[in-house]
């Protein structure tokens, strides 16, 4: 499988100042254009009378920055935090002599991989179900160079160019138009992000521009050809991706209902207003004048059968060799979690969906005596709830996995009660530096262990409440709970309710 890399000449598309309309908000220069035949949809512009139903179609193009210390064809460093234009070699800037190159190198015509698919699972409400597993086809994955970035300074009417990213290696993942709403696209991108991270091929951090998504959206009446698509460029958060798509679907439906037309245009998502805005139209076929790059040798991928006998293993790409060494992918990790810990499938999704949560859970599991089901409950409701409420990442948690593990062990061995554990958790969160042991001691949270002492307290409560005792003896079992409550109050919540119940039942016989 030979994949010579092509050069894409981009007439009139270099980063000349002011080449972009002023209202453009996207900071990224445009990626290399590909070709997909648009279906003619003149008929779709006027909805049939009585046709009220609409179907939405979403196809994504995803640009993931390849994990590498250097650019694709130069030794310049790749660093997100580097000051503007500090990671640019003469080659990246196409110096000496001229303006930036005006073309990007891409495998657009002979991509590194074709005809793949990605499986992802949607949760239905709060629950996961196997029927909500969907597949999106991947048309191709091509390697290409990233381009520079222009920053518009509206106050000074200036556009500044930063070439740090020019020449950084990207993989463009082109998906077929198989999705139908923002939630599906968001889940698919999240799954891809997890896969890229597991493979180590991209850090895929959207906030740092290592994963950017272009969302192609169209609407049509079911049973009719697909509608004209618009393309919302450079979405850099999963939440905005879902919002932009759902907004765009509604906008298109309204436009068509009002007798309007959908233009084949590029749009940007305005994060503050929560809507998409037009950037430029793509109407009319552009001739990108693709041409082979004569300076680049073909990239040849082999499998065990095609590998020439004399090949130097260091010099060739052997797919079978790579396949055998693939790390555990997210779907396999989830299956393993369900099997190993007996947790629900939706819990395994929740663990992987929050960065760092799986590692946190696994550390707690290693260090605690508590059962996995108890641990997962604490992690997904209490722990995650605290983080979300305070908008914190797992890595910013003031409670370490070891302290949580210790706390849950104490509940498990009935040293403290569940409500007391919640109190300790709150204290640990607020007063960093205090240990679980200190908090339990200071607040006198340890459960009363002494059987005789507990029996005496229960006896005293029964003696003080003859009416309740009579009621129970007449068969009113509900009153037992009332008595348990009384004993708990008498012990300031330091008695295990199950143990109280056992003692009371014995004494009431
Ligand atoms: N009718 C449609 N509705 C929604 N999405 C569509 C439709 N037709 C095609 N698409 C999606 O549009 C995308 C086309 O991507 P591709 O890279 O092939 O071309 P491009 O958008 O013209 O080029 P560029 O790379 O410059 O953005 C694919 O993700 C495809 O699934
Ligand atoms: Mg594309
Ligand atoms: Mg596109």
From TrEMBL:
Its EC number is 6.3.5.-. PANTHER family: GLUTAMYL-TRNA GLN AMIDOTRANSFERASE SUBUNIT B MITOCHONDRIAL AND PROKARYOTIC PET112-RELATED, GLUTAMYL-TRNA(GLN) AMIDOTRANSFERASE SUBUNIT B, MITOCHONDRIAL. InterPro entries: Asn/Gln-tRNA_amidoTrfase_suB/E, Asn/Gln-tRNA_Trfase_suB/E_cat, Asn/Gln_amidotransferase, Asn/Gln_tRNA_amidoTrase-B-like, GatB, GatB_Yqey_C_2, Gln_synth/guanido_kin_cat_dom. It comes from Vombatus ursinus (Common wombat). Residues 359-508 form the Asn/Gln amidotransferase domain. It comes from the Eukaryota. Its main location: mitochondrion. GO terms for cellular component: glutamyl-tRNA(Gln) amidotransferase complex; mitochondrion. SMART domains: GatB_Yqey. It is found in: Mitochondrion. GO terms for molecular function: asparaginyl-tRNA synthase (glutamine-hydrolyzing) activity; ATP binding; glutaminyl-tRNA synthase (glutamine-hydrolyzing) activity. Coiled coil: none annotated. Pfam families: GatB_N, GatB_Yqey. One of its GO terms (biological process) is glutaminyl-tRNAGln biosynthesis via transamidation. It is an enzyme of class 6 (ligase). It catalyses: L-aspartyl-tRNA(Asn) + L-glutamine + ATP + H2O = L-asparaginyl-tRNA(Asn) + L-glutamate + ADP + phosphate + 2 H(+); L-glutamyl-tRNA(Gln) + L-glutamine + ATP + H2O = L-glutaminyl-tRNA(Gln) + L-glutamate + ADP + phosphate + H(+). Belongs to the GatB/GatE family. GatB subfamily. Keywords: ATP-binding, Ligase, Mitochondrion, Nucleotide-binding, Protein biosynthesis, Transit peptide. Allows the formation of correctly charged Gln-tRNA(Gln) through the transamidation of misacylated Glu-tRNA(Gln) in the mitochondria. The reaction takes place in the presence of glutamine and ATP through an activated gamma-phospho-Glu-tRNA(Gln). This is Glutamyl-tRNA(Gln) amidotransferase subunit B, mitochondrial. HAMAP family: GatB. The gene is GATB. Subunit of the heterotrimeric GatCAB amidotransferase (AdT) complex, composed of A (QRSL1), B (GATB) and C (GATC) subunits.
């Amino acid at each position: 499988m030979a994949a010579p890399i092509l050069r894409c000449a981009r007439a009139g598309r270099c980063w000349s100042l002011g080449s972009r309309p002023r209202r453009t908000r996207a900071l990224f220069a445009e990626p290399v254009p590909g070709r997909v035949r648009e279906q003619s949809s003149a008929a779709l512009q006027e909805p049939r009378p009585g046709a009220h139903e609409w179907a939405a179609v979403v196809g994504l193009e995803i640009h993931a920055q390849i994990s590498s210390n250097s650019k694709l064809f130069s030794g310049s460093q790749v660093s997100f935090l580097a000051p503007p234009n500090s990671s640019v070699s003469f080659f990246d800037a196409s110096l000496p002599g001229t303006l930036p190159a005006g073309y990007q190198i891409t495998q657009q015509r002979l991509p590194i991989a074709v005809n793949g698919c990605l499986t992802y699972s949607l949760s239905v409400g709060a629950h996961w179900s196997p029927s909500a597993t969907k597949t999106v086809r991947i048309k191709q994955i091509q390697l290409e160079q990233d381009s520079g970035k222009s920053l518009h300074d509206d106050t000074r009417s200036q556009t500044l160019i930063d070439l740090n990213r020019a020449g950084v290696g990207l993989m463009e993942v082109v998906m077929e138009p198989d999705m139908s709403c923002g939630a599906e696209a968001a889940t698919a991108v999240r799954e891809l992000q997890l896969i890229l991270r597991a493979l180590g091929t991209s850090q895929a951090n959207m906030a740092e521009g290592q994963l950017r998504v272009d969302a192609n959206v169209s609407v049509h009446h079911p049973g009719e050809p697909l509608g004209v698509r618009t393309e919302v460029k450079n979405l850099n958060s999963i939440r905005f991706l879902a919002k932009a798509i759902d907004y765009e679907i509604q906008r298109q439906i309204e436009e068509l209902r009002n007798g309007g037309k959908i233009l084949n245009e590029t749009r940007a998502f305005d994060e503050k207003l929560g809507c998409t805005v037009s950037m430029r139209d793509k109407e009319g076929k552009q001739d990108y004048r693709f041409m082979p790059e004569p300076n680049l040798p073909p990239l040849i991928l082999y499998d065990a059968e095609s590998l020439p006998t004399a090949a130097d293993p260091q010099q060739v790409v052997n797919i079978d060799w790579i396949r055998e060494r693939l790390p555990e992918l997210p779907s396999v990790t989830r299956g393993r979690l369900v099997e190993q810990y007996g947790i629900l499938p939706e819990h395994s999704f929740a663990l992987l969906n929050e960065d760092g949560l799986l590692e946190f859970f696994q550390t707690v599991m290693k260090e605690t005596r508590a059962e996995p089901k108890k641990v997962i409950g604490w992690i997904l409701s209490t722990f995650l709830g605290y983080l979300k409420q305070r908008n914190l990442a797992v890595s910013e948690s003031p409670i370490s996995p070891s302290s949580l593990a210790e706390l849950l062990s104490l509940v498990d061995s009935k040293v403290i009660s569940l409500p007391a554990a919640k109190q300790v958790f709150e204290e640990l969160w607020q007063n960093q530096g205090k240990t679980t042991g200190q908090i339990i001691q200071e607040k006198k949270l340890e459960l009363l262990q002494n059987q005789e002492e507990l029996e005496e307290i229960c006896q005293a409560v029964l003696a003080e409440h003859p009416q309740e005792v009579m009621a129970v003896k007449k068969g009113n079992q509900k009153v037992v709970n009332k008595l348990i409550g009384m004993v708990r109050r008498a012990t300031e919540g330091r008695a295990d309710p199950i143990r109280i119940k056992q003692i009371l039942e014995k004494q009431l016989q």
